[in-house]
Specification:
With 635 residues, this protein is of the alpha/beta class. The chain contains 19 helices and 30 strands. β1 and β2 form a beta hairpin. The N terminus is likely disordered. The structure holds adenosine-5'-monophosphate-propyl ester. The site of adenosine-5'-monophosphate-propyl ester has 23 residues, from α11, β19, β20, β24 and β25.
Length: 635
């Protein structure tokens, strides 16, 4: 395969092993990893059926896996369930009802503790609000909120009545939000007046209003008051959350759904064109996220779990909302910026709430490293017993810093590799596996991963290739909403019978996997997934731009950063002011995370004879690397 210049080189070192302590091994749910892994590989359906038995079902499934219409696999066929039954309802008849589901802290220091019982009432009320707004089973609801408890409440309320939520990350802006509202044909949007992030207010309602000035079918906007600042209002369309909730009944029956009924769609950037809405279902997704969370992070009743991701991305869906609630643990949610007002904000929260497991992104760790180890060291982090990493490769330096300075040298780091498409952890340590900094170790139980070359032949140890998955798993996305053919093309056509991940990787002689990075047009900026196509389309929506190309280049802090190349329309001259205006324009249309680091004006872009921009060549040029095979270049 062609070497991708945009990648972090993992160092495969067989000597650098971190063995779990006896205390960690004693506490671990899985004692014999090899035996469990062998059993799940040999009897995947029996393995998953046994996991599913741990959850509640209205009606048991007839068939664990139906492969008759592959790649449109079905799990727990004939089963009746609802993720809310397991996440909320079944705790109500146990002492869990009084246990805390969410410990929330606002950036301004305000706090809320929400017990499972209260969560049930709030979800029931909001489900009735949605019904009164005309939402029925199968309808899509767009949720665009800050990190407040009402975000999970809104998601759960949708799930409860069988509606399909589409959460749009609060860091996205007008164009990105509008595209997602339209594509999902949502009639209802749930938002906040604003969100506090790093001392600033993100004007969420204003962004919704701007998005809804464009074509749309939205009849209701429900707005949660968080900042209290003045917002625009459209009479008849807009209602306040607190007013709608005032008279709503907490009684609302949880809809008994088919295991394969949709739970949510989540838009993510793909290799080409507009973002894809990956669709996840109630049954398989529940079983998969619940199982992975319990085995990998070994959560118990007395744990304080903090997944510091945003609920607007898959990590938050699976491991802030659904799996922790099904597992009945207490989760911490923090609203704001990690270093606001000081670089020890996170460590203060760990100290204050006695967080026992912290799961976050490498980019956050690299951000903390800049401020020095004294910030975590000056806080009491002795409550921590496990750490986790997700979203991008973690460089061994950041791994070791996290391990020593946050984990005090005693907390194993679960470096979990997975994707929006996979629903839950796929390649991941468990507490009993020896660790190698920078490696996600080995595939989870029942996951058959293989690295192959261009021809689909298995790579030799340490040889770089494409990461593929050989067999279906319950948490897999079932389709792309509204575009089943694209689902088949993107994930299943390249190597028939296998799921293509879009990542390059290596497996070492010990069977440990090392993720290298994306091989498609996805750029991971600070762990956030963005598409070159979206950035380019934001650029060409500016009147001065005729054509644009975006690439990701390695960045010490953010993993990758966006570089763009722009051809101007006649009558426009390159200038530093115009470059800055274009950066701002992308920020306004897509969101601050998509703002390019650099806008370079060019007269031409390298293209194939069929007119496709060769981003690989741009990347190589930008880094002064060999440009590789240029036989398909236009000139
Ligand atoms: O490139 C891999 C990277 O993130 C991609 C998936 O992004 P997204 O769908 O936004 O989901 C992120 C959270 C699950 C993957 O294709 N990635 C994710 N986790 C890791 C990772 N790369 C290396 N190591 C990881 N632990």
């Amino acid at each position: 395969m062609t070497a991708d210049p945009n990648r972090t080189e993992p160092k495969v070192s067989h000597a650098d092993l971190y063995h779990p302590s006896d205390a960690v091994k004693r506490a671990a749910r899985i004692k014999d990893w090899e035996a469990m892994s062998r059993y799940a590989a040999d009897h995947p359906e029996a393995f998953w059926a046994a996991r599913a038995e741990e959850l509640g079902w209205y009606r048991k499934w007839d068939k664990v896996l139906d492969s008759s219409n592959a790649p449109f696999y079905k799990w727990f066929v004939g089963g009746k369930c609802n993720v809310v039954h397991n996440a909320i309802d079944r705790h109500q008849s146990t002492p869990k009802r009084n246990a805390i589901a969410y410990l929330w802290q606002g950036e301004d220091g305000s706090e809320r503790a929400i017990a499972y019982g209260e969560l049930a009432r709030e979800v029931g009320k909001f489900a009735n609000v949605l019904k009164a707004s005309g939402v029925r089973k199968g309808d899509r609801v767009t949720i665009y909120m800050g990190r407040v408890p009402e975000l999970p409440i809104a998601m759960l309320a949708c799930a409860k009545i069988g509606a399909v939520h589409s959460v749009v990350y609060g860091g996205f802006s007008v164009d990105a939000l509008h595209g997602r509202i339209q594509d999902s044909s949502s009639k209802v949007v749930v938002t906040c007046d604003g969100a506090f992030v790093s001392g600033k207010v993100v004007e969420l309602k204003q962004i919704v209003d701007d998005a809804l000035k464009r074509e749309n079918g939205v009849t209701r906007v429900i707005c949660f008051k968080r900042t209290g600042r003045e917002v625009g209002w459209v009479e008849g369309r807009d209602v306040w959350w607190h007013e709608a909730m005032k008279d709503a009944s907490p009684e609302c029956a949880t809809e008994q759904l088919d295991a394969e009924d949709p739970l949510f769609i989540l838009y993510t950037s793909g290799s080409t064109g507009k973002p894809k809405a990956l669709l996840h279902t109630h049954g398989g997704y529940s079983v998969y996220t619940y199982t992975t969370l319990r085995y990998v992070f070994d959560l118990r009743d007395d744990d304080r779990w903090w997944c510091a991701a945003d609920p607007g991305w898959i990590t938050g869906h699976s491991y802030i909302v659904y799996a922790p609630l099904m597992a009945g643990v207490t989760s911490v949610i923090y609203e704001g910026g990690p270093t606001y007002p000081q670089p020890d904000r996170w460590w203060k929260i760990v100290e204050q709430y006695k967080v026992s497991v912290l799961y976050c992104a490498p980019t956050a760790i690299r951000g903390f490293m800049r401020f020095g180890p004294e910030w975590p060291r000056n806080r009491d982090l002795s409550s921590l017993r496990l750490l986790g990493s997700v979203g991008e490769p973690i460089n061994p330096e950041a791994w070791k810093w996290f391990y020593e300075n946050v984990g005090g040298g005693r907390c194993p780091i679960m470096d979990t590799w997975w994707q929006t498409e996979t629903g839950g952890f796929m390649i991941t340590p468990t507490p009993v596996l020896p660790l190698k900094p920078g490696s996600g170790t080995r595939p989870f139980f029942g996951i058959k991963a293989e690295i192959v070359n261009e021809m689909g032949e298995p790579c030799k140890p340490d040889e770089e290739g494409y990461l593929t998955i050989l067999a279906p798993w319950p948490g897999m996305a079932r389709t792309i909403y509204g575009d089943a053919e694209r689902y088949r093309q993107t994930y299943w056509n390249r190597y028939p019978g296998r799921y293509f991940t879009g990542d390059s990787a290596r497996m070492d002689a010990d069977g440990y996997f090392w993720i290298i990075g994306r091989v498609d047009d996805v750029i991971k900026v600070s762990g956030y997934r963005l598409g070159t196509a979206e950035v380019e389309s934001a650029l060409v929506s500016h009147p001065a731009v005729a054509e644009a190309a975006a690439i990701g280049l390695p960045h010490e802090l953010r993993g990758n950063t966006i570089y763009t190349y722009v051809i101007l329309r006649a009558g426009h001259e390159p200038s530093p002011e115009l470059a800055e205006a274009l950066r701002q324009h992308v920020g306004k249309e897509m969101g601050p995370i998509a703002k390019p680091e650099k806008v370079e004006f060019v007269a031409k872009l390298p293209k194939t004879r069929s007119g496709k921009i060769m981003r690989r060549v741009l990347k190589a040029r930008a880094q002064g690397l060999p440009e590789g095979d240029l036989t398909t270049l236009e000139e």
